[in-house]
Amino acid sequence: DTGVSQDPRHKITKRGQNVTFRCDPISEHNRLYWYRQTLGQGPEFLTYFQNEAQLEKSRLLSDRFSAERPKGSFSTLEIQRTEQGDSAMYLCASSVTGTGTYNEQFFGPGTRLTVL
Amino acid sequence: GNSVTQMEGPVTLSEEAFLTINCTYTATGYPSLFWYVQYPGEGLQLLLKATKADDKGSNKGFEATYRKETTSFHLEKGSVQVSDSAVYFCALTPGGYQKVTFGTGTKLQVIP
């Protein structure tokens, strides 16, 4: 399967702990996005990379959140000092630069975070 | 800013019924419009798209037409099946490489 993969699929942690999620995009895709989806809501944009450069960050991404894509391939999203409000599904998507008016983002299965 | 409003669910239909899920949007310029589907236990999948006014996106019997005059992109299917049960998200992006703005999703349940 050559789709977007995310690890772990589920994470349960205690409030105040740090967690890190990993996303492996489709191999030739140079753009990588992170979204957060809470129960009953649509996904909300967090940040995106083109190759290794982080080009945009949402105001939702507080200073407890950090994302990296060091070699322009996989990406990690770290949440420090987790809070119960961080409980959500964290989605990763990737796409390739195109010349048209849009380029499809392919989504991974997500990492479900539960903060106790 | 950009936003998407779609009808609240859940929507419950009998098999072979006609489906409409309403979606309206607010955006500057000429966004591209999408419907994504999320089946139980699976990731988001692009169902169909339209990139300019009057375009009709279609896939798997679903259709939606980009109506700039009414800023709408309603999803329709003539005869739903049990396998169509899922959550459907209307979405837009102002440009091909930018973030996607999603609606809140509409859960569809089709009963035999």
> Which class best fits the helix and strand makeup of chain B?
mainly beta
Query: Total number of helical segments of chain B?
Result: 0
Low-confidence stretches of chain B: none
Strand content of chain A: over 45%
Task: Work out the number of β strands of chain A.
Answer: 11
Given helix and strand content, the structural type of chain A is: mainly beta
Low-confidence spans of chain A: none
Largest interface: A-B, 30 and 25 residues
Rg measurement of chain B, Å:
13 Å
Mean model confidence by pLDDT of chain A: 91
Order of helices and strands of chain A: EEEEEEEEEEE
Estimated share of beta-strand residues of chain B: over 45%
Helix count, DSSP H or I runs of 4 or more residues of chain A = 0
Q: Main β-sheet of chain B, in a few words?
A: 6 strands, mixed
C-alpha geometry of chain A: globular
Largest beta-sheet characterization of chain A = 7 strands, mixed
What is the helix content of chain B?
under 10%
What portion of residues of chain A is helical? under 10%
* β-strand number of chain B: 12
Q: Note the gap between the termini of chain B.
A: 41 Å
What do you see in this structure?
The complex is a heterodimer of chains A (116) and B (112). By secondary structure, chain A is mostly beta strands. Chain A has strands at residues 5-7, 10-13, 19-24, 31-37, 44-50, 53-57, 65-68, 75-79, 88-95, 106-107, 111-115. In chain A, strands 2, 4, 5, 6, 9, 10 and 11 form a 7-stranded mixed sheet that branches. A 4-stranded antiparallel sheet of chain A has the order 1-3-8-7, with no helix packed on it. The mean pLDDT of chain A is 91. Chain B has 112 residues and is mainly beta. In chain B, strands 2, 5, 6, 10, 11 and 12 form a 6-stranded mixed sheet that branches. Chain B has a 4-stranded antiparallel sheet with strand order 3-9-8-7, with no helix packed on it. Chain B has strands at 3-6, 11-14, 19-21, 23-26, 32-38, 44-50, 56-59, 62-65, 75-77, 86-93, 101-102, 106-111. In chain B, β10 (86-93) and β11 (101-102) form a beta hairpin. Helix content of chain B is 0%, strand content 50%. The A-B interface holds A 4, 31, 33, 35, 40-45, 48, 50, 56, 58, 91, 93, 95, 97-98, 100-110 and B 4, 32, 36, 42-46, 49, 51-52, 89, 91, 93, 95-105.
